[in-house]
Design goal:
Layout: E1 3-7, E2 10-13, E3 18-25, E4 33-39, E5 46-52, E6 57-60, E7 68-73, E8 78-83, E9 92-99, H1 104-110, E10 118-121, E11 125-130
Parallel strand pairs: 2-11
Antiparallel strand pairs: 1-3, 3-8, 4-5, 4-9, 5-6, 7-8, 9-10, 9-11
Length: about 130
């Protein structure tokens, strides 16, 4: 059974930091890229960052570039999203998702993260940034 389990969300003041974790199981971790999405109330889901664990190649949305860092621990089948200098507009439910094998190049070329490229999704973790 495929599972993606997010953890590490919470409440933090503006300027603070949080680290989200995404623990994956039930599929060959090295074959997939893992992405982080977020969705705020009343807004569309936004692709935030993505990493291909096989070579470490990454993508960041402009809205988080320079503040968020994605990393992968292949031994633990876990992807992390370190979020620094958080802003109130970062408040959202954050989801991790596993991308269909071989499609990470589309993210790198188009600089977008279409959600239809992702096969499996976690349940989400709430991140709230107070002003």
């Amino acid at each position: 059974e495929v599972q993606l389990v997010e953890s590490g969300g919470g409440l933090v003041q503006a300027g603070g930091s949080l680290r989200l974790s995404c623990a994956a199981s039930g599929f060959t971790f090295d074959d997939y890229a893992i992405g982080w999405f977020r969705q705020a109330p009343g807004k569309e889901r936004e692709g935030v960052s993505c990493i291909r664990s096989s070579d470490g190649s990454t993508y960041y949305a402009d809205s988080v570039k320079g503040r968020f860092t994605i990393s992968s621990d292949n031994a633990k089948n876990t992807v992390y999203l370190q979020m620094n200098s958080l802003k109130p507009e970062d408040t959202a439910v954050y989801y991790c998702a596993a991308q269909k094998p071989g499609l990470h190049r589309i993210v790198l070329i188009t600089h977008t993260m279409p959600s239809h490229l992702y096969d499996y999704w976690g349940q989400g973790a709430q991140v709230t940034v107070s002003s």
